[in-house]
Predict the 3D structure of the following.
Amino acid sequence: MQNITIEQLEELHQVRSEVMASQAFQDWCKSLNVGRLYISKESFYDAKEINSSYDFKKLNWLGKRK
């Protein structure tokens, strides 16, 4: 891993912000149908795995008794 200074990171962030704000970049993203929103499915799969390992039949749903 390279040694990167705070100044270099700030400069990189500044350049990135300028590029992303440029109309040419936005048009390029639109032409490729690229969005900025990304949602990780990892938490979905973790929740599904946890739910599948739990026995919901033991629950007392809405106060109903077995």
Summary: The chain has a mean pLDDT of 78.
